[in-house]
Design brief:
Strand content: 25-35%
Helix content: 25-40%
Order of helices and strands: HEEHEEEEHEHE
Largest sheet: 5 strands, mixed
Structural class: alpha/beta
Number of helices: 4
Shape: globular
Strand order of the largest sheet: 1-2-7-8-3
């Protein structure tokens, strides 16, 4: 007979405050073979407190990457991240290993339809900060610079 309540298992994945703070973008774009595929970019916004150093931000983003699976650099064979995408009606959720929380992704009908039809998206994690208010040009510059410096992590997220 139990005389005290069981404590929940400790979470090793990202917590809700970190997930809520992320800057997130979704778009459709071509794969190397020319077919359209869905893309997801997750980055941390610039720090607002003294403890939000570039090293601390990078550590948080690498923790997020580790909770998703074996993300790799741009020149490596892209890793499969099975079952971390969930499509629920017009909503898409990204699930993290070791966490009971997920991240609701920004969607638009064409992008969501692409996820539903193909069952996958290219996931990109950027360890360097970028504000959610970044323009499309600034986003392109971030991606180009991150790829050139091998500072982006990639995975192929799948639906179950």
């Amino acid at each position: 007979m139990l005389t005290r309540p069981l404590a929940p298992a400790p979470s090793t994945g990202p917590g809700p405050s970190l997930l809520f703070s992320l800057s997130t973008w979704t778009w459709s774009g071509p794969r190397p073979d020319g077919q359209d595929t869905a893309h997801i970019l997750l980055v941390h916004p610039p720090g607002r407190a003294s403890h939000d150093t570039p090293a601390a931000i990078e550590a948080r983003m690498r923790h997020i990457a580790a909770s998703l699976g074996p993300l790799v650099g741009a020149d490596d064979a892209i890793a499969d991240l099975d079952g971390c995408l969930r499509v629920i009606g017009s909503r898409v959720l990204l699930k993290f290993g070791g966490s009971r929380y997920g991240l609701r992704l920004p969607t638009h009908p064409g992008w969501t339809d692409l996820i539903t039809r193909r069952g996958q998206a290219v996931l990109i994690i950027g360890p360097d900060p970028l504000p959610q208010s970044a323009t499309a040009g600034r986003l392109d510059t971030y991606l180009d610079a991150g790829r050139a410096a091998d500072r982006l992590l990639f995975g192929l997220a799948h639906t179950p």
